[in-house]
Specification:
The protein contains twelve helices and twelve strands. A hairpin with a 3-residue loop joins β7 and β8. Helix content is 34%, strand content 21%. Strands 1, 2, 3, 4, 5, 6 and 12 form a seven-stranded mixed β-sheet that branches. The longest helix has 25 residues.
Length: 380
Amino acid sequence: MADVLTALGLMSGTSLDGIDAAILKTDGETVVERGPSLFTPYGREMKVFIRRAVKAAIEGRDSAADIAKASGEVTQAHAKAVEALLSAAGMRRSQIDIVGFHGQTILHRPARDRQSAGRSWQIGDGAALAAELGIDVVADFLAADIAAGGEGAPLAPIYHLALVRQLDREGSVVVLNLGGVANAAYFPTDAEEEDILAFDCGPGNGLLDEWMELRTGKPMDEDGALARTGRVHSGVLRSMLASPYFARNPPKSLDRYDFKLDPVLTLSAADGAATLTAFAAASVRASERFFPAPPALWIVCGGGRRNAALMEALSKALTGAVVPAERVGWRGDDLEAECFAYLAVRTLNKRPITFPQTTRAPRPLGGGVFYRCARTPAPA
């Protein structure tokens, strides 16, 4: 049996809200203990840095100064997030065995066929983070999968399997993450690693958050309040659901910017919010056709679970019960950060993190690059 390590996971998603940090004790197979966690929001300036980097990456300006600037700022922000969590938890750096660092995605373009090369770009410097913290770091989790022809995402299903195995349940379960992009992982009863089916369903919160910022200046439709006052435009909804993405067989993954606001630009703020909320729910509903059997339970994590209008739309649209992660004893805000703590330990133990039915990898693949710290951890 592998040793139980104390790992600290870091995740900053495509919603650009900030950095989730969480501590986990694990052997890379089972979850022994979930430790303290902390969210550090991105400031306005940081969001500007990242958006400039995203624009440069999409435009193919790989050597742009905007990308280098954002990468350095992201690394420093993550170092500060680690220090903040350890301080709040009353822990020393020397108590952390490994840090799992996802980085900030600025481009995700997986291969669409075996003849083309995919790319997924997460900025942030794992070596610099290890040197800054004096703690070993595992980063670059997607690189091996992308290089082998996989989609590179989602990466969380193997962690979700560890959690699902601890539930007292009957029937199949889907773990639905509603972040900037929505992804689903299906687990049949008594699921093993090879039984997981996972893929990105659709835009999640991304489009709705973008719409709110554009039309109201707010970062999100808090509790779905604006959507509740609007009307769903069925014609616009049908046109958005006509995207070829929804007909593609999984595994498949999306970039945060694959879907655009163009179809709703002529709508009022409230009608746009209502239509985009309906679109998010309908895109998840469209994913059900790919599951081997109707799920008995949907466990929803990510920020979208706090949007009551979206949760109601999902409950009406989906087969099976729809519950937030907290209902089954999970920490819905911390799952992705916990995941990268878990994946870091799996990487150290040379265990696979992606699979043919989660990322279209040709076989179960390890992932993550190990960066040894350059100095002895200083006491905190």
